[in-house]
Design brief:
The protein has four helices and nine strands; from the N terminus they run H-E-E-H-E-E-H-E-E-H-E-E-E. The protein is α+β, with helices and mostly antiparallel strands. The strands form two sheets. Strands 2-1-9-5-6 form a five-stranded mixed beta sheet. Strands 3-4-7-8 form a four-stranded antiparallel beta sheet. Strand 1 and strand 2 (51-53) form a beta hairpin. It is globular. It starts with a helix and ends with a strand. The mean pLDDT is 86.
């Protein structure tokens, strides 16, 4: 549909703008840029709250699942991505954190119980072909399936 094409173009341009900013800031400071554009920012109660480059995310192990989308009439689709539970473990989420706040490019935010995210073997962060990130959350409410993820905050 036209709406999907427009959104895909907006997402592509947003990534390009982020990459240009990274390069411009580095050039201004006399630095050489060797990392790719920042894909995901971790905030809050992580051992190391930081930004993850796309190239770093690409190095993590992936899982593949076939599930129906979050809508009642959604067809089954195959998704390949980084296990959310494994990512949270690798990022060292704090022991006292109870909520994972997920924010998208359009500032949409949803809160997910961290215990449930840790226990979900099929939940994942998908690295989309267009350079965006998608949160796939089988057996969770549809508002937990977030497109255009830019940050995770442990609270």
């Amino acid at each position: 549909s036209d709406g999907a094409a427009v959104q895909a173009e907006i997402d592509r341009l947003t990534r390009e703008i982020r990459e240009v900013r990274v390069w411009a800031e580095a050039a201004e400071g006399g630095e050489e840029v060797t990392e790719s554009v920042i894909a995901l920012t971790l905030l809050g109660d992580f051992q190391e709250a930081r930004e993850w480059a796309w190239t770093e995310l690409e190095t993590l192990d992936t899982i593949t699942i076939t599930v129906s989308g979050p809508g009642e009439n959604d067809a089954e689709m195959e998704y390949t991505g980084i296990s959310l539970a494994a990512f949270l473990e690798a990022a060292s989420v704090g022991a006292d954190a109870e909520i994972l706040s997920v924010t998208a490019t359009d500032d949409y935010t949803v809160e997910i119980e961290l215990a449930a995210a840790h226990e979900c073997a099929e939940c994942m962060i998908v690295l989309e072909d267009d350079g965006s990130l998608r949160l796939v959350m089988p057996n969770f409410p549809s508002n937990n399936w977030v497109v255009g993820v830019v940050s995770l905050e442990a609270q």
